[in-house]
């Protein structure tokens, strides 16, 4: 790829069953990576979808959330004018996509992460997961009095 003519490009599918990068677990990754030779280096354009391990914001259960992302990065040939943040083409020609995928999947994650749009969350009194059980605090009066107690 390095000695290809400027402007040439090709697409490669990158599918990975599971990757764990630092604190992030990604599974069922399906992506299409387009690499184009430019004057400065290699331009990588990625379309990817995967399931990202996170916790439901209501009931805190671990869930694999479907996330899609599209991004591009330029891997530059060595240049004295580069900035700290620039990606540099490694000499062995091996691009480690994992940290890049980690960064963009985190950016693409929705703020409202729910196991289900109808998730009932946790009981405010005893912490029971109300998707899995009911507890004695679920009458309206009980929840109201519990809320008053917490405010008092
Ligand atoms: Zn939930
Ligand atoms: Zn309860």
Using the CA coordinates, give the radius of gyration.
23 Å
| Unreliable stretches covering 5 or more consecutive residues | none
Total strands: 5
* Series of H and E elements: EEEEEHH
Global structural class: alpha+beta
- What count of structural domains? 2
What compounds sit in this structure?
A: zinc ion
Helix content: 10-25%
- Overall 3D shape: elongated
Number of helices: 2
Q: Biggest sheet, in brief?
A: 5 strands, mixed
Q: What keyword list fits this structure?
A:
alpha+beta; 152 residues; 15% helix; binds zinc ion; five-stranded mixed beta sheet; 5 strands
Which secondary structure elements does this structure contain, and how are they paired or packed?
Blueprint: E1 9-21, E2 24-37, E3 41-55, E4 62-76, E5 87-88, H1 98-108, H2 140-151
Parallel strand pairs: 4-5
Antiparallel strand pairs: 1-2, 2-3, 3-4
Bound molecules: zinc ion (ZN) (2 copies).
Residues 123, 125-126, 128, 135, 137 line the site of one zinc ion (ZN).
Task: Please characterize this protein's 3D structure.
By secondary structure, the protein is of the alpha+beta class. It folds into 2 domains: 9-119, no CATH class; 120-152, no CATH class. Helix content is 15%, strand content 39%. It is built from 2 helices and 5 strands; from the N terminus they run βββββαα. It has helices at residues 98-108, 140-151; strands at residues 9-21, 24-37, 41-55, 62-76, 87-88. It has a 5-stranded mixed sheet with strand order 1-2-3-4-5. A hairpin with a 6-residue loop joins strand 3 and strand 4 (62-76). It is elongated, with a radius of gyration of 23 Å. It starts with 8 loop residues before the first strand and ends with a helix. The relative contact order is 0.16. The model has no long low-confidence stretch (mean pLDDT 86). The structure holds zinc ion (2 copies). One zinc ion binds next to loops.
């Amino acid at each position: 790829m390095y000695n290809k003519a400027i402007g040439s490009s090709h697409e490669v599918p990158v599918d990975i069953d599971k990757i764990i990068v630092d604190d992030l677990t990604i599974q069922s990754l399906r992506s299409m990576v387009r690499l184009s030779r430019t004057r400065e280096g290699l331009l990588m354009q990625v379309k990817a979808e995967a399931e990202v391990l996170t916790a439901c914001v209501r009931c805190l259960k671990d869930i694999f959330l479907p996330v899609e992302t599209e991004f591009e990065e330029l891997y530059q040939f060595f240049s004295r004018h580069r900035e700290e943040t620039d990606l540099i083409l490694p000499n062995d020609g091996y691009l480690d996509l994992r940290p890049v995928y980690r960064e963009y999947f985190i950016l693409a994650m929705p703020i409202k992460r729910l196991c289900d749009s109808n998730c009932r969350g946790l009981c405010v009194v005893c912490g029971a997961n109300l998707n899995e059980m009911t507890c004695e605090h679920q009458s309206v009066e009980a929840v109201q009095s519990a809320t008053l107690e917490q405010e008092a």
